[in-house]
Amino acid sequence: xxxxxxxxxxxxxxxxxxxxxxxxxxxxxxxxxxxxxxxxxxxxxxxxxxxxxxxxxxxxxxxxxxxxxxxxxxxxxxxxxxxxxxxxxxxxxxxxxxxxxxxxxxxxxxxxxxxxxxxxxxxxxxxxxxxxxxxxxxxxxxxxxxxxxxxxxxxxxxxxxxxxxxxxxxxxxxxxxxxxxxxxxxxxxxxxxxxxxxxxxxxxxxxxxxxxxxxxxxxxxxxxxxxxxxxxxxxxxxxxxxxxxxxxxxxxxxxxxxxxxxxxxxxxxxxxxxxxxxxxxxxxxxxxxxxxxx
Length: 294
Description:
By secondary structure, the chain is α/β, with parallel strands linked by helices. The chain has helices at 67-79, 101-114, 155-163, 200-206, 231-246, 256-269; strands at 13-19, 34-40, 47-53, 89-95, 120-131, 137-139, 153-154, 171-180, 211-215, 253-255, 280-283, 288-291.
């Protein structure tokens, strides 16, 4: 008897497949359909988490209170997902003077060699940002200043951590909480200079799906710092803990679309000298990022 093997891709969840055999002869006999139902849970995959934060600058006037605290708090929340949504959480942190172009390139090389298709890459960036005289955005390293931002990390290098074509992971997230450092006032507010550093067309052209870039406020906005964390980070953590799912589909997990929408609304509701926004660049279907913890 002849046999035929076919590989049929199916989505996570329950799938129903109907198979019929057609005999290509003078009678074109068609078999009774065979119905196959399968529940498929994809491999959990690992989470590759990168957190980058600078708050102590060579120019003391630029010092901020919350970036490292924000990055540590975000990392601690995501590490709770180990053994659940993700098999293992691999966390690489860069802090203060360790944040350099070379260090970030080494992180990218590590991601490119270690990450598999079923894994997830999340990058969190907090600190100051500034634009040079021709409008290019830079994340300020400890030795950089608004007057000389080119000492810092160019926006393209931050993008590359999730956009590089050699990354195998289909789930990628870049969260940016940086400011237009030249507008920092005595209250050490954090706005966002990176809001228009990325465009939807760039993502659509470079990645077919599963990528989200989220920034914490508008170019001229100010992301206020609370007693514990910045408003944007606090909104992300509250959303990850389950508030985003409560306002979403209530299925027990927080997907990236729910988290973005919750953060957007939360940040917009905060009072301050300037209103803030959470612009997004995205591609692909929303995917789970955390389990509801409360």
